[in-house]
Amino acid sequence: MIVFTDAFTDDELFSDSFPQKTEFGGFIINVSSKMMKKDDDEDILYDRKTFDAMDNKPDNVIDVDQVVETFRLQELTSIAKIKDCVATITPYLTALKKKIQTNKGEDALKSFNEELKKFLMDQVGKDFSNYKFYMGESMDTDNGMVVFQKYNDDGETTQLYFFADGLKQIKC
């Protein structure tokens, strides 16, 4: 298994056990997740269909996103508007852009900036109310990656978006 961590904070963010694809010129990784039922007393995750079929259901159950719960991502409740989002991710993006420029050069940085604008304005900005925002467990708001979570129309699945150049891969 490969675990993807934040290159700046070492927070674990997701693993290759979840379906994923690259988007926006390869600068964004889109990870598919699903909503689960969590027995808060026993810390057990249940698939919703399995849970619905159970005879003796636990009492203290909450809905959670599988990736968010598994990797202990922390919700950023302070992001209510697109300008809050931009203000929150600016310190991270400054460090990420420097990393891209150093490791990949000016052309890659130019491409990243173009794709970033498309991602933030055309995708996130147009459907902002369907997004939630997370960080890794350390909640390092100066250095940590902001993870974008979008709820799909089916109410069962979500998409989480990560900056590809801000990830490290660790084989487990």
UniProtKB/TrEMBL annotation:
Under SUPFAM superfamilies, the record lists: Mss4-like
Q: Where's the TCTP domain?
A: 1-172
Specify one Pfam family: TCTP
**Could you state one GO cellular component term attached to this entry?**
cytoplasm
InterPro entries, A to Z: Mss4-like_sf, Mss4/transl-control_tumour, TCTP, Translation_control_tumour_CS, Translational_control_tumour_p
* Entry GO MF terms: calcium ion binding
The UniProt similarity line reads: Belongs to the TCTP family.
For this entry, the protein name equals Predicted protein
Species name: Naegleria gruberi
Organism lineage string: Eukaryota, Discoba, Heterolobosea, Tetramitia, Eutetramitia
